[in-house]
Amino acid sequence: MLQSLLSRGNTGVPWEIGFPEVAIVATIGIAGYLLILAIYQLYFSPISKIPGPWYAALSSVWLYQRYIRGGTIFVMDELHERYGPYVRVAPNIVSVADLHSVTKIHSVKDVFIKGSVYGAMSSNLDVLIVETDPTAFKIRRKMLGSTFNQLSMNLLEPIIRGHVDACLRGIREEIKANGFCNFCELAKLLGLDTAGHIAFGAHFPPLRKEKFNNILRDTTFMLSLTLLRGLPLFGSIETLLSKIPHFAASPFFSCECRLTEFSTKAFDNVQSEIPGCKNGGLVRPLFAKISEDMNDESAKNRLTIKQARDEAFIMLLAGSDTVGLALVFLVWALLKHEDVHRKLDEELKALGNVEIEDSILQPLPYLKSFIQEGLRMYAPLQVPLPRVVPQGGRQLGDYFFPGGVEAMPATYTIMRDPEIFPNPQS
Ligand code: HEM
Questions:
Q1: Which pLDDT tens digit goes with each residue over 393-415?
Q2: Has keyword DNA-binding (predicted)?
Q3: At CA 46, angle to CA 41 and CA 52, rounded to 5?
């Protein structure tokens, strides 16, 4: 009787397993696994005591869709307002709005390496900024950091001044011609021209206006493409789309070709030194030594052409958007706050009729505070910069963070903490 109930068909096998049975067992198995995982994440994970929205403890999907949609900093700020200085924003990521802990996270004495967001980029982009191995980071930092020391910056003053003057001329010309100017575009062009000049030792020959917009657009596309390439199936989708002429020729998918062509030209024209530095001083362009070493087999540390091109692309992106946006915010703040504008004017007028130089501007207290306040309120790089807690774990505030958990400094929120900055919004 029992056998007849269990048996199916006439195979004689007491219980024949077909697709529906496998599907049911698999569904129950997966549901059970997810349920156990959810209970673990919510109640037993070492960071389950850290407050935060319940869905954040279960999956990081909401966080990644927020990165894509934008406005992450405002959402994080609201979460900190609600839950306090430590908020669990993903199963393995905690947003930290406590200055004391953020100082520990960024301390040079301890190694909190860069988090998983950088990992997605580093699968396609071989650059310093996404390097997570501390030893490799130090080597690359030494190779790229030499030009940005204070001495070189002092000597480069006439070069930078030349680009600032060109930007001011551009503003006047545009206003004369149209009655207004696109300051955002001109400010980014100033950043790009200056970064390019310091990196390669000469003006970029093709870079003016319409070409500039294309390069800037391409660097932004390239960054998005790099992030997308970090996703599991994107590589295959991109290969497939690149076979279709319409997609292959689209500005988005063809940006890498144009950037490669651009950086190849820049590398071909890299100068051995930057002419026109202050007091006849010598500054080597950032990529001069790198370029020489690339062709020298005996050089200790050599970049490949791909690594050098990637670094050049990042320099152009880092030098144009950040500097451009910082200037836009500062000028906007100046126009918005008449009293600040007036005080700054008074400080500058008090200098009298002198040739304006960096050494004269540096000691001015109001100018310094204005720039610092502007960068505090409107920092141009508002992206999450998570760091991985080292093996053995660390105590941050009231919580113990096990090794491997990612701590993400909530810079926007800290910059508006009334205990650090009284009247932070004023
Ligand atoms: C107002 C302007 C700028 C702001 C606000 C800014 C902001 C930042 C921040 C926050 C980081 C750290 C990223 C991280 O830890 O993941 C960074 C790194 C970096 N920036 Fe900038 N940046 C500015 C201008 C520039 C310029 C002009 C250049 C070069 C031409 C540049 C090149 C770099 C490079 C190469 C790194 C990686 C270095 C490292 O990780 O140690 N930045 N920048």
A1: 999 999 999 999 999 999 999 99
A2: no
A3: 60
Pairing of the two strands 93-96 and 406-409: parallel
pLDDT band at 6 (very low <50, low <70, confident <90, very high): very low
Closest alpha carbon to 206 in 196, 198, 195: 196
Instruction: Tell me if 331 sits within 8 A of 167, measured CB to CB.
Output: no
pLDDT digit string (tens) for 18-35?
A: 888 888 889 999 999 999
User: How many angstroms separate the alpha carbon of residue 323 from the centre of ligand 1?
Assistant: 10
- List of residues 6+ apart from 343 with CB closer than 8 A: 366
* Pocket lining: 323 vs ligand 1, CB cutoff 6 Å: yes
Nearest atom, ligand 1, residue 199 CA = 30
380 lines ligand 1 (CB under 6 A): yes
Average of per-residue pLDDT across 313-335? 89
307 and 348 Cβ atoms separated by less than 8 Å? no
Does the pLDDT value for residue 169 go beyond 90? yes
Q: Specify the residue with its C-alpha closest to ligand 1, atom 3.
A: 322
